[in-house]
Amino acid sequence: MGKYVIRRIGQMVIVLFGATLILFACLFVLPGDPVGSLGGDKARDPAVVEQLRERYGLDKPLAVQYGNYVTNLVKGDLGEDYTQRRQVTEVLGPKLGNTAKLAVAAIIIDVVLGVLAGLVAALFRYSFWDVLVTLLTTLAIGFPSFVIGMILQSQFAVNLGWFPLISDGSFNSMIMPAFTLAIIDAALVARLMRGTMLEVLRADYVKTAIAKGLPRRTVLLKHVMRNSIIPVVTYIGISFGGLLGGALITEAIFNWDGMGYALVTAIQQGNNPIIVGVVTYGVAVFVLLNLLVDLLYAVLDPRIRLS
Q1: Is residue 138 part of a domain?
Q2: Per residue in 2-47, pLDDT tens?
Q3: For residue 62, is it within any domain?
Q4: What is the residue range of the signal peptide feature (predicted)?
């Protein structure tokens, strides 16, 4: 187990630096000068622009810029925001917290709705409830998230007035964006849960447990649920990692001040330190959650050995 964790951490470091290197290369070849564009349409004094380029190290080759970034990253320094003249960690810290709250709320909805719907559909196969779950999940998967968000805004914010149209950071304003993020994932979780449960229910060890006279509840909880939940945990872990990286469209629709909204704004402004900072956070969280999911496998299923 220890060797496996060390090896995975090494892989995480490689992935993190590889992702930032690719991003650096992409930003480097894009046309335009981010420092020169800070003044908008107003012309800047070339001498001032040159001073700013020197201050932010943009006058150096890509390899030198990336080397400086890696050196500072090891120290926990993600650079300075071009527009606010503040450290990137200071700018993104509160936004990461907002995104984390939204992601946790969405994952809770995913697990509750998705697992329960899949469980009901599998246990009552071909019944009214199974058909209903299949129909609703098909409809949910067919709608893009921004359409779901606009429908929720139109019905529950504009028409009914139950929730604020634009998020203000409160719990009440978090409900609609959380459901917007969760609906599609919950539908996929329900489909996945139903399929894996039906497969496990046909397994020989489940039939043997039933033949031995074990209570139905024991068979479901100890044998069926425990083995059916493993693929669901994988999907939820990956989905949670993606959500923590920032939900660009949803956060933009609801004006939720999170990582995704910060990334959209930074791209519009050409604010490279924020762009790289958001991607660095996102990749780090994603690979870390993948490691935690792998370790959770061994807890859920003792047959799985990590080596």
Answers
A1: yes
A2: 676 777 777 778 887 887 788 777 766 666 666 655 554 444 667 7
A3: no
A4: none
